[in-house]
Amino acid sequence: MKKANYFLAALLGLSIQFASAQVKKGSILIKNATVLTITEGTLENSDVLVQDGIIKKVGQNLNAPNGVTTIDATGKFLMPGIIDAHSHLGLDVVNEATAPIVAEVRMKDVVNPYEVGIYRALAGGVTISHAMHGSANVIGGQNATLKHRWGSTDPADIIMQDAPRTIKFALGENPTRVHGRGNNIQPRTRMGVEAILRNGFNEAIQYQKAWDSYNSESSKKGNSAMPPVNNERLQILSDILNDKIIIHCHSYRADEIYMLINVARDFGITKLVFQHTNEGFKVAPEIAEYTMGASVFADWWAYKFEVYYSTAYNAAILTENGAITSINSDDAELIRHLYHEAAKTQRYGGMTDEQALAMITINPAKQLGISDKVGSIEEGKQADLVIFEGHPLSSYTVPQMTFVDGVKYFDIKEDEDDQRLKVAPTEMVDAVMIYEGHDSRCMQDTEHLFETTNSLFQLNY
Amino acid sequence: MKKELLHAGVFCLLVSGWLSSSLAFAQSDPSGKKRITDTYAITNATVFTAPGQSGVKATVLIKDGLIVGVGSNLSLPNEAKTIAGDSLFIYPGFIDAASDVGITKPKDPERPDDFVSSNPSDEIAGITPWRSAVDQFSIKDSKVDDLRKVGFTIAQIMPDGGMLAGKAAIILLGAENSTNLLKENSGLAASFSGSRGMYPGTAVGVMAKFREIYDNTELSSQRSQKYTTVSGLKRPEITPTYSAMQEVLSGQIPVLFSTSSELEIRRAISLQKEKGFKLVLTGLEDYEEVIDVIKASGASVLVKLEIPDDKAIKAQKDDATEEVKVLNARVKKAYDEAVAQASKLEAAGIPFAFTTVGVKSGDIMKALQTMIKNGLSEKSALAALTTNSASILGISKVAGSIEKGKMANLILSTDSIFAEDSQIKHIVVDGYIYDYDTKAKKKDSKDGKEDGTVKIEGNWEYTSESPAGSSGGILSIQKEGSDYTGTITYDDPSGSGKATSPIKNVVLDGSTLSFSFDVTANGMEILVEVSGEVDSDSFKGTMNVGEFGSFPFEGTLNPTLIANK
Amino acid sequence: MKRLNKIFIAFLLALLPMMAMAQIDGEVIKPRAGKFLLQNATVVTITQGVLNNTSVLVDDGKIKQIGANIATDGAEVIDCSGKFIYPGMIDGGTKLGLVEVSSVAETVDYAEIGNFSPNMQALTAVNPNSVAIPVTRVSGVTTVLTAPAGGLFPGTAALINLNGYTPDQMYAGFKGIVMNFPSSGRRGRYDRRSDEDIKKANEKAVKEANELWEKAKSYGSLVSNGAELDYYPEMEQLAKATTGELPLLIEVNAASDILAAIKWVADKGTKVIFTGVAEGWRVADEIAKAGIPVVTGPIQALPTRDSDRYDTPYANAGKMAKAGVKVAIRTDEQENVRNLPFFAAFAAAYGMGKEEAWKAVTINPAEIFGVADQYGSVETGKVANLIVADGDPFETKTNIMHVFINGYRMPLSNRQIRLYQEFLDRSPGLKMN
């Protein structure tokens, strides 16, 4: 089989997946809401008509076509579904922590639609999450963009099949701790991290060359070309070099952020988003100029040394410098109130309502490469919508209903308390889990690498 | 490694004739163990030749390890040893489509000094497709007889190991002096389990690595082909992994993917769709949701022959709060659905078989009975144990039913096989007869009891053996009308001294006595079930203590104690 | 509101060169004592209702006077028209000052070795110069309980004001002995003990707690009888709880544990405060009946059970309050205690109501900790812990304009704000010259 055939096979595999995923699409008319369109201002007393999962019309005095349910949202706020650009919900495995580069692993392989956290995210208005590989590797696995179609048990149904490919990178303490200090292999320092990146990309160039020359040679008659070894890892790096995959890089310190910007520029990579980016504010002009921006926490800091010199004004500084900025959760708890996290940018830096809301809608959509489909209330876009009682940026706001593709998946008034899709036949029902603070899963599945897991899991964002 | 490479190339079907002729060399046997004939006639038994067939009175004649006749008017050769089958039921011997019986995990290879966790050798990383279960198997393992005792005559043994543990093999649960091999390299055992602390460490890494191995096996064979036809080429590297994977790529053998949950099932099927190998899903525990997906994939299915632990549902209390009751009901429903899953596979028309990997032999019959009680037809249950497994293993020509010319693998039981009090008296494997003790049922007047019933009321002194040691107490039984009541004393598990519990569900069926009682240990209620045979004033049976297992239980009706009472 | 915020920032930025100048003069930005008249505000007293067009006079660290027409009398006048005055918020449970960077063990000072160390004093380990303290107080949180954690009796917690350079200056008059009530629940996702093991560990811990308690009781009564016992600092400290000299702060969360804890304290005759109480809503009536006050939080938390409704942690405080429990709210945070007002807002929105939520971060903790004569409301004679805001301090849009602690006017800056000032418009920017 030639290399080209591999691509073909992969493509066919993809289209099979497409065909098998038959997701529900809904039709509804939401009336008399204060519509926060994000991209086209705020529309008072307006209606949004959704047909077959697509926003058909935004306006006033719209009528419901036959069979379309009307929802009266008088006095309520309607905004696009919230998008979390950094999450680990719905994944059975987070880290393949065993090598500095594991670009070949795919989070789509281990999507778990049963995790009740997905429903809880919906209850906080989140309709899309970026299910990421963990931060144990310099180049981690390929991420999955999920649509929170709660209730489906087929992982393909909750994967946003029309989202572009993204991949996880990680700099700083986590990869150097796992590999350098945990396994005694490079990288142990930020120097090593850069070297791993440059080595990987250069190897990928050679790999691509080998295949290119084989492919052109083998088409000739009577050739004696031997096929090179297949290496999915280098193939993915090669795809990154060709801007087919968006990098989402876990990063904290300004120096390492700047390092990756330079590496990317040297290799001609333009699709680059920084994650966490606590010191992004120090290199905000560079992030704005050369990348697709940063996805940050609203106020997390001091949980590890590389985030000690943080500021909650980070998002505001990045925004004012022109960087695309989003607010993310990286956490099963925080994802439940991203609207509130976005609101914190109003205290820390005086963001306007539009700026703050963009950070959890159109901006993360841009960073995930899906802003043509979601992230704002515009005709023709997918009908991922949330209705709030009270302005979503008020501390007292309460999400009421959440829709994905026009289908209602959360309704505060109607939903049962127990939302688990599945119960184990051997379960003792009174098992209690006491919440012990934020529990990021960035470093999940790396337990075995450390003797004192306890210290690790408090602090591994 | 050389040896394993050899294995990888071998694909042989050993006929039983070869076996017996090789054994025939031994003329004298000072040990006295050699059997005097290999010809047996089981006469006038109720024979079930295949799933769905009703039992007919017939004689089964076996010789040379083969069934040479089934019928009512067979002429029996002089050398045939006769077994009176009048009260016996004969079934085809069960086939365990995937088993860990007799398998010992090979030692982990030593890590070299220059071990790099990100790039370990295949062998260390659990990628050992060249290994064979045959090398890990011992017929002398006591578990072999445990499995045979419940009716199994053939098993596909699965190698123990990592993501690609090695090749399975099909063996007879037969005589110790035979290799018992039916088929080597019957499939490649695969799982999603990663290697601890090295690449690939998790399911997501395993899936990526699987794809990589698959694609490079293909390329490796292209290179090898080219190397043999064109001169002047660089020598391609031959690795045992790719060599051993060839049979999978060529479709000669299936991948036996261990997939217990529905998500794992989906993952294995998605790999199969991508790469196109033959797939057998094995070890299924939780699969109701994906029955359609399985059916569409065309993969073969091996269900784990086990039912979920009922500890949780038994612990549910009636006086729970409303909130807890609702949650309890969900768990109960999940349990009911779990035990009815096999019947759903049947309804979907998927010809599944069973695997006993990770299953205790002693629990198998109860699991089957529970599945049948929850909707699985006896026909399908038997098919899963015989014809379906034979067909999935590709041995239908020689095994799976009682027909002339097939291997003499039979179960001889005292009642229809799935009946609750049915007992297995003989197992025939490869023409060899294995005898098992049966507890006499409705034995009448042996002890001079004119009415043909046994008397159990009174005080029994009993002892029981458990891993914790031997213990005992007094079992006191009274008759009230036609019912029995009583108490039992035992060593208090939560301290010293004796505790007493009432006994319940006391049933005397012929000479079979069964009863149960609750023991409270550490605040947990454990149901203890005892059943066995009463023979005059002695009682022999087993005590079943929830998940802890079954232990011997013996008692004597003590006249002194009666007098004292 | 948005505009106000911008003005505030502009004001800060304008101040920047001035600050620099001030530093040249050898003066640093620091808390300033004095006599301040906060004029014409809307005063939300918490205990005495809302007073419009009212002024508050701060002098000598105390609230001297509250009224409509207070004479300036040499006081520095701060025009508060259009603004709101609230009491400083009290966080009923934190580790503030006891940890600087969580992952750097050398900076973590809240968990000592040993299961029985009630004599460990959080107060003396507090770092008054922790970067997190000024980060916290600009949110309007002026007082926090800072508590040790770890074993069965990990130490003694202390209430501190977020102003001062020594523990003595910061101390706000309350100490309590922390007890982690033996838990029958699972502690986080990585607790993989079997149900059996958890049960066993729980039984063992209860037994140990009982034994220690009995010992401490004997120790206390022997000493009060005049006995001269061997030095035994742990017993000496726990004895203070058995005699009622110090309250017991019992950390308890699972419903069954809460019931067990209620039973456990019933015959102890000691002052008890429950903390955590994540499943309090399940047994709210029982807690109310027992008359035990509660410091609950974090409010923004995950439900304790997968089968629980998503909003149970938000609604927990309100449900307990409705059942008649005296409820205070805590963040259980270290560097992000600044989120206390937002936690209170969530509790308010999910059933507690604003008024009760305000009490839960002011007068209720003050009463629970026995310092309501000095803290928790805007009343004459109380310590001048005050905040001036341009709106509802629970809302993120609101600016906290002034913070007073012990009558000191606190500088409204911190490292996070200084970084903002430096980097909002970095120089050099993208290009150097």
From TrEMBL, chain A:
Stretches assigned to the Amidohydrolase-related domain: 314-398
Leader sequence segment: 1-21
Pfam families: Amidohydro_1
Keywords, comma-separated and alphabetical: Hydrolase, Signal
Top-level division of the source organism's lineage: Bacteria
GO molecular function, one term: hydrolase activity, acting on carbon-nitrogen (but not peptide) bonds
Gene3D superfamilies: Metal-dependent hydrolases, Urease, subunit C, domain 1
Keyword Disulfide bond included in the entry's annotation: no
Protein name per its UniProtKB record: Imidazolonepropionase-like amidohydrolase
Lineage: Bacteria, Pseudomonadati, Bacteroidota, Cytophagia, Cytophagales
Automatic annotation (TrEMBL), chain B:
Molecular function in Gene Ontology: hydrolase activity, acting on carbon-nitrogen (but not peptide) bonds
Domain of life: Bacteria
Pfam families to which the protein is assigned, alphabetical: Amidohydro_1 (PF01979)
Keyword Cell division: no
Keywords associated with the record: Coiled coil, Hydrolase, Signal
Signal peptide feature range: 1-26
Coiled-coil residue windows: 317-348
All residue ranges annotated as the Amidohydrolase-related domain in the record: 252-431
Protein name: Imidazolonepropionase-like amidohydrolase
Organism encoding this protein: Algoriphagus antarcticus
Automatic annotation (TrEMBL), chain C:
InterPro entries: Amidohydro-rel, Metal-dep_hydrolase_composite, Metal_Hydrolase, Metallo-dep_Hydrolase
MF terms (GO), sorted A to Z: hydrolase activity, acting on carbon-nitrogen (but not peptide) bonds
Keyword Disulfide bond carried by entry: no
Keywords: Hydrolase, Signal
Keyword hit for Hydrolase: yes
Domain Amidohydrolase-related residues, every copy: 239-407
Entries under Pfam families matching the protein: Amidohydro_1
Record's signal peptide: 1-22
Protein name, as recorded: Imidazolonepropionase-like amidohydrolase
Organism: Algoriphagus antarcticus
